[in-house]
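Request: Not sure, any thoughts?
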Amino acid sequence: MIRIAVFVTILSAALLYALRKGGGPERAMASILIAMLLADQLLHLFVPPRFSSVDMGHLLIDLMAAGATFALAMTAHRFWPMPAAVLQFLPLMAHIGKAADLSLHPIAYLTMQVAAAWLLPPLLVFATCRHQMRLRTSGTDQSWYRSWGSSSQPHASR
């Protein structure tokens, strides 16, 4: 249980930093991670964790998070959401692997679901630091692409 406490501590620090100092994309990613955390806690109020078969509750949470992070990657005027989206898709591969081979050991399935999550807090901290550096350097930092239309000019926002 110590590793869970360590992860929650690291995640909490990254979320607080991103929410206080991040731009729009960093705050959006923090919101996605908070929603995942809350959904996971809500799920475990009703369904105990089980890794002997495909975990439909976590599959749904992971699908929603991957979709939201992909949408962030497509609309943010940043590079870091692309690797974040890849990290969110990795747990989906765990679910597909478990569905394809039900004899996959439960510990392997669990590890495949959660291992990539350890990389998201440091990525979010790095992204927030870069945002702060751009603000100090130029005084502004473009957060979002304006539209999918013919204009590829991003608009400036915090």
Q: What stands out?
A: The chain has six helices and two strands. Residues 94 and 109 are 6 Å apart (CA to CA).
